[in-house]
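Narrative of activities, Objective 1.

The group set out to show that a structural description can be obtained from nothing but a protein's sequence at a throughput compatible with the screening campaign. Below is one input-output pair from the validation batch, recorded exactly as produced.
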Amino acid sequence: MGFDVNRYVQYFNAIRLAVPALDVFNPNYNIPEPQITTGGYSSFQTVQSYGAYLQDQISFQDNLKLLIGGRFDWISQKSGTDESEQNDTAFSPRIGLVYQPSKSVSLYTSYSQSFNPTQGFNPDRKAFEPTKGIQYEVGIKADFVESRLSTTLAVYQITKTNVTTVDPNNSDFSIQVGEQRSRGVELDVTGEILPGWKAIASYAYTNAEVTKDNIYPVGNRLEDVPDNQASLWTTYELQNGDLKGLGFGLGLFYVGTRAGDLDNSFELPDYLRTDAAIYFRRDALKAAINIRNLFDTEYYSSSGGLRTFVRTGAPFTIIGSISWEF
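Output recorded for this entry:
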């Protein structure tokens, strides 16, 4: 059981500036300081939230377990110069059941609801309503080869309401659409192929679409959600000798094509990124060099629902770390 308190304060000021056109391939930043023009918009918002939650796991038999819990939230939002107040409360239940027909196989199912405050305002300066969600999930987990190989297969559905998206009529604001739904299948395989050689492989198929909206057609894909994505990460660590604890890692991460906006007017291409690592751990010492985007692949990570806000992925990056545990 637990209790939490959160406070969020935001001041937003949008100003239109008159600046010359910019050539992204040959940018010229040597321009006069722009003059602030009229037509700006400012807002002030405070969100105060309290949450209490309780969860318990019950074993009816050695092979049958029940997880049950719930959370109650109180949320107060003040916004605008007149500090108009909006209060919301909600109870979010969670329940799950696990059945093990054998020691190596587990079947599970779960149901949960979510409730989160949404910061921001509609174009009419009315505070956003909280985002709500309902999730159903069923799956199976199995261990093989004396638990050296583990697989998990899950099927789920998540339905969200009051989701915010960019206002197509005014990109300075966001709006809340009616309903969006994600259905998917996830497969994870983890195992030790040989002593010191481990691998993790995963695949996910996601059908994320608009299911109710006054602007976008029902069936449109949600932005930045790939239909297919997969990854493979493998490591090998020396088990004997003076270099015991020295390890190497290599990973492949594939992300499929994604819709760039809810209107599905453009698409982000798929990409394959390669990561690598060299590490050493001995007793309490651990040192590592992690390499992200080994081949400096150019790719686009997300769009945020805007053609003018497409983010490029990080280039070739090296991160070094060293730690001592005690």
